[in-house]
Design brief:
heterodimer; A: about 220 residues; alpha+beta; Jelly Rolls; six-stranded antiparallel beta sheet; 6 helices; elongated; B: about 190 residues; mainly alpha; Rna Polymerase Sigma Factor, Chain: A; 8 helices; about 70% helix; about 0% strand
């Protein structure tokens, strides 16, 4: 199984520069964990950051800064943030490590909330500029037809969804902006789990989904 | 200014000397070169001078503590320092968690393959050359995208250019840099 829908370079560059909101960063990190080609591209795009760092007009450091830094070093490394999940655990997972770190485990640890019609979701605790939520969509089930005011990025973790002519499987990413009104449908065969990040409330075009919107918290 | 292959090779050696011998002289030279650049990066990202100075020191201390994690077959020292500084920026300035991709199951080799290290250094050389010859408009955009705490929509608002133009220009520039870095002629 290979990843076919990848994250565009300019979004990888925002991630590499540390300018992407946390929720979108989580989609990028998940996709890169599942796609070797994008990992290589990210490394190249980070190398551009290194080249610019070499080239930048430097700001002189204060007097005694080297000594101050050596004193910091002598104090030892700062405590690492405890890992919520060990990267060395053997086994295969549905959720890639960046998401497991938010959940504290794999799919069985997700605290799903039903949002009707068999669809379940779990909102992950990220910075408020954008929302990240895991979605569980039963095989063959339609997602509400919706457009966007902002950007939405979705990475598939299990199963697949179809959107128009395109099929998105594990590791694939769909990037949608306000020009795209789309209608994702979970592929038959397997229930679909994906992570969707959005920076503005979704705008559903049907009346019924709109009634659901406050309830969906999206 | 570093730039020659020999000098960049030397930075890799500096990190190895810190890792293997806790070599303060090697660290001092790295500090002299990179700390002012990291400070500039952080100030361009919106930090005031005091905070940028403090964070630049922390970034350099992290370089010392993580010297064993540096893999010269995957990145140049400058790129590695850039990623440490970038992480500090997300943490300190944006006050966010940064989701990182899953680590590859293998870490740095104790004795990295010299041919691979050389290949990375040649790529850095070609990349520096490509950056220098980028048309001014593209170059300014690439710099704004990496340095400066602006999202692409904020760059669009600042420059008055449509967001689509910003994105396509940046994509073109990155494409060109990546291809020249890999030595692919198109």
């Amino acid at each position: 199984m290979s990843v076919r829908h990848r994250i565009p370079d300019e979004i990888l560059a925002e991630y590499a520069a540390g300018d992407l909101a946390e929720a979108f960063g989580l989609v990028v990190a998940s996709h890169v964990s599942l796609c070797t080609e994008s990992r290589e591209r990210l490394e190249e795009i980070e190398a551009v950051g290194g080249a610019i760092l070499e080239d930048v007009e430097a700001e002189p450091m204060g007097a005694g800064s080297l000594e101050a830094t050596l004193a910091k070093i002598a104090d030892g490394p700062p405590p690492e943030a405890p890992l919520t999940f060990s990267s060395t655990d053997a086994g295969t997972y549905i959720l890639p490590k960046p998401i497991r770190d938010y959940i504290g485990g794999d799919v069985e640890s997700v605290k799903w909330r039903s949002v009707g019609m068999g669809v379940k979701q779990a909102i992950l605790p990220t910075s408020p500029e954008a929302t990240a939520r895991l979605l569980y969509i039963p095989a063959g089930c339609e997602m509400p037809d919706h457009g966007h005011r902002g950007m939405e990025m979705t990475v598939v973790l299990q199963g697949a969804f179809l959107d128009g002519e395109d099929r998105f499987g594990r590791g694939d990413v769909e990037v949608a902006d306000e020009d795209l009104a789309h209608m994702p449908v979970a592929d038959v065969g397997e229930d679909c789990i994906c992570l969707a990040a959005a920076d503005a409330p979704l705008r559903f075009s049907g009346l019924l989904p709109r009634l659901f919107q406050p309830f969906l918290k999206i | 200014m570093p730039g020659s292959v020999a000098e960049q090779a030397d930075w890799t050696g500096h990190v190895a000397r810190i890792r293997d011998a806790a070599d303060q002289a090697a660290f001092a030279e790295l500090f002299l070169h990179f700390a002012p650049r990291v400070k500039a990066f952080l100030m361009r990202s919106g930090a005031n001078e005091t905070l940028a100075e403090e964070c630049a020191q922390e970034v350099m201390a992290t370089l010392w503590h993580k010297a064993h994690m540096f893999d010269p077959t995957r990145a140049s020292v400058a790129t590695w320092v850039f990623t440490i500084a970038r992480n500090r920026k997300v943490d300190m300035l944006r006050k966010q968690r940064r989701p990182e991709p899953e680590d590859l199951p293998w870490g740095p080799e104790p004795e990295p393959e010299q041919a691979e290290v050389m290949a990375r250094q040649q790529e850095s050389e070609r990349l520096a050359g490509a950056l220098a010859t980028l048309p001014e408009k593209q170059r300014a955009l690439v710099e704004a995208a990496y340095f400066g705490d602006l999202s692409h929509s904020e760059i669009a608002a600042t420059t008055g250019l449509p967001l689509g133009t910003i994105k396509s220009r940046l994509r073109l520039a990155l494409d060109r840099l990546r291809h020249e870095m890999k030595g692919v002629t198109r």
